[in-house]
Structures are given as C-alpha cells and as structure tokens.
Amino acid sequence: MKPGTHLCAAAWLALAGLPAAAQESVELKPSRQLAPSALARELGARSGSALSSTSQASQPSQALQAEQDSKPLELADAVRRAVARHPSIADAIATLAQQSGGVEVARAGYYPQVKLGMGAGLNNSGGSGAGRGRGNGLLASASLSQMLYDFGKVSGAVEQSEAQVRRQQAVVLRQIDAVAQQTAEAVVRAHRYQSLAAIAQEQVKAVEKVLETARLRAKSGLSTKADPLQAESRVESARANLLQVKSLLAQSRERLATLLGGAAPALVAPLPQQLASELRIDQAPDTSLLPDVLTAEADRRVAAAQLDMAKAQRYPTLSLDVSANKAMGGVNPSTMERNGMHHTVMFNLSSAIYQGGAMDAQVRSATAAEEAARMRIDTARLNAGDQARSLREQVAGAQARLGVLAERRRSIGEARDLYREQYTLGTRSILDLLNAEQEIHQAAADQEAVLHDLWESRIGYIGATGQGRAFYGLDNTTVQGMELLP
Predict the structure, then answer these.
(1) What is the C-alpha separation between 446 and 466, in angstroms, rounded?
(2) pLDDT > 70 in the chain, percent
(3) What are phi and psi of 72, to 5 degrees?
C-alpha cells in the first residue's frame, strides 16, 4: 500500500462516520429577524395572537430630521426615533451575534478535528542495524479525529447554544420594549408640563386682567387701594407657579432629548386619542409572548440541554483517530528508520469512569436549574397578570374622575364669569373674584393631571401586556438592523 493510502482511507472513513446533522449545511449567521410568536413556538411556549402594524421605519436623513424637529413631536415618532439609536439595544443585538457564534462552536463537534505539527529533538534509536543511528531530527506529524457517536454530548451542546440564542433574542425584545416605554413615559411627562405651563400662563393673564380692573376701580374711587395690592400678590404667586412649571417642563424635555439622541422639538403633539380608543384593556393579555416569559422559557431550554449533556457524560464516546508522522531528518522513533514514515488508524472508545462525583453533581445541578426556570416562567406570568390588572383599574378610575373634573371645571367657569360681572358692578369683593380665578385654573390643572395619569396608566398597561411594538408602530419595521415581526 502506498504511503498516502492510509490517510486517504482514514479520511474517507471519517467522513462516512460524520453525523447526518453535521453533513448538512450548518452555516448560521446572526438572525436579523425578531418575531415573538415564532420565538414562542421554537421555545415550546403556548402560542397566541398579537396586534400588528404595517408601518415602515427607516433612518431619517438630516433634511428629514430637521423637518421632524420643526414639527410637534408625535408619541409614536418619538418611540421610533429612540429605539433606532439607543445604545442599550445595540448592545443587546451585539450580544445576540456573540451567542450565535457559540452555536457554530458547538456544531464544530460534529466535524473532524485535523492537526498538523512539527517537532525537533534528540532521539536515540539504539541498535546497530541499517538506518539506525543517533542524532537530532525533525518530525512532521498530522492527525485526524472524528467523533462517530457520543450519546448526545455534541447535540446537547448545540441545543444549549441555540437556547442561549433564543434567550438573547428575548432580551433584545425586552430591551426594545423597555426603551419604547421609557420614551413614551417621557413624552407623556413632557406633554403634561407643556399643558400645565399653558394653564399657568393663562392664570397669569387672567389675574393680571383682574389687577388692571382693580387699579381702574381704585383710581376712580370705586374701591379701596387694598384691591390692587391683593391682586398684585396673586399675580406674583401665579408667576412663581409658572416659573416652577417651566422648570419641570425643561427637565422633562432634557430627559426626552437624552432618549431621542438630540434636542427635542419645541412642542409635543396632542396625545393620540385614536390609538387610545383602539387599546383594549378588557381582554386578558397573552403572556406567552412577553419577553420576560420568553426569557424564562429559554432558560428552561438551556437547563434541559445541560441536563441532557450531563446524562450523556455517563456514556462513552466512539471516535476514529488517524495519525501519521514522518522524520524529516534523522530517525523516526516509531519505525526506527531514517526519514521513516509511520501511520495509525484506530477506533477509540473512551469514557470517564470516575470524576469524584462530578457527573452526578452536574445532573442534580441541571435538574434544579430546569425546575428554577419553570418557576421563573410562572412568576413572570403571575407578575404580568397582576400588573395588568392593577393598571386596568387605574385606567378605569382615571376615566371616571375625568368626567367629574370636567363638570367641576364647567361650573367654576360659570361662577368666575358671574363674579367678574358682579365685581365690576361693586356687588362682589375682589377676594371672591381672585379665589374664583384660582379655583378655575386649579380645576384645569387637576383635569390635565388626571388626563396624563390616565395616559401613564395606559403606557404602563401597554408595556405590561407586551403591546408596545404594535401600539407604537414598530412591528414590521427594522430597528438597528433587526426586522421586528409580530
């Protein structure tokens, strides 16, 4: 047999023994799609329906960005801008690519391991026959090892790595939802103080108008000089309140600018009542699509794969090992021939008989980890349901209070108009008019506060039930290179 025949035969045998799963194409690149429904199916969780949107998103050009900044900021637009540039999402996506590489590493166990080497050293072959001698020499070596059957060790490692990829996909979804909710809350907060600033400005103008009337009446001798002094005090109080609200508005705008990655537009657009009317809070949420549930389900899959691997360690591994070496100078220590060549082809059956109880400990640890993951799934579902029910009650309570506050504001407005007329006629004191002005603006501020409390509860409910991507128009769009699907 020719010297290279052994290597050719060994290589053929190695490829013939390659597992079928490895013979197929296993090229795996980081997934560029995120679909909670598909992820739930892959993880074995109960599938469910989700809201969808067909809007498209893309990175705006500088001209488009300038045009957007000149317009009032819409809630959904702010969310899309924030998720398109937030570094925490980019971090999660980069980690997803790292986890995808781990699958490649695990699948490499299906393929032959080929090694080449070159060594130099002193050999002493001994004897006096032909070709025998003593001296320094170079020895070139090549080896090939192919796993033929391992009772699931490699497949368990692949399953574990794939489950870790699924887990990181859920983490990306969770991070997108977190940034979306933070941005929505910042928009609602900025709109709250924007509305309160407008009310405070109206209060200043209204009290200044009362002051002007009081000064005219005092100059005409129709009232005492105390009236203008009392009105001036209320004007200063109204101005101080306006400055405080403007300070809070500036703080909320800075928070919004941080999330948007640039200066926020001068105005926040009215909150989308049409989208609010489409939000259903009377239906139980589908918890199987929540990122926290998907993450816990992936943890369970990781633990299950670890358990399979730990059990497989109890069984042997069958492999085919082929090696060849050739003395490039001097004597080959295996053949005792100068410039000799040596080949070996072996079937190896190896197993760890005793490792100090490590294998049993690994099985116990993986079993406990799987049970803990199951409990985390139940905990995530429980927390989501509890939070959704609490926020649902907050929404209902705020909606009920709005009706009462609207009626209060209307009645106080009528009283204020009557007091103005009566003060002009001299039948009502200025304190009554100033108190009425303060009450009507307080009623307006209370109404705006409850309205925005309602919106904050809606935002919280959307986040708790996993509807953020559908509600803000992120489904079927691309976020930092990742396509989001329902």
Answers:
(1) 30
(2) 84
(3) -60, 140
Place of tokens 């059956």: 349
One-letter amino acid identity for 477? T
- On the 0-12 / 13-18 / 19+ scale of CB atoms within 10 A, 402 is middle
Question: Any residues with CB less than 8 A from the CB of 440 and at least 6 apart, and which?
Answer: 409, 412, 413, 416
Lowest mean pLDDT among 13-17, 32-36, 129-133: 13-17
Q: How far apart are CA 450 and CA 400, in angstroms?
A: 10
Q: Are 320 and 17 spatial neighbours (Cβ–Cβ below 8 Å)?
A: yes
pLDDT of residue 62: 55
Structure tokens at 164: 């870790």
The token pair that represents 292 in the structure block: 């926290």
Number of H helices, E strands in the chain: 13, 9
Concatenated DSSP letters of 183-237: HHHHHHHHHHHHHHHHHHHHHHHHHHHHHHHHHHHHHTTSS-THHHHHHHHHHHH
Domain 64-110+154-316+375-469 has CATH 1.10.3210.10: no
- Tell me the domain boundaries of the chain: 64-110+154-316+375-469
Diameter of the chain measured on Cα atoms: 140
The C-alpha atoms of residue 402 and residue 398 are separated, in whole angstroms, by 6
Pick from 481, 463, 480, 479: nearest CA to 471: 463
Give pLDDT, residue 58.
39
- What is the reported pTM? 0.78
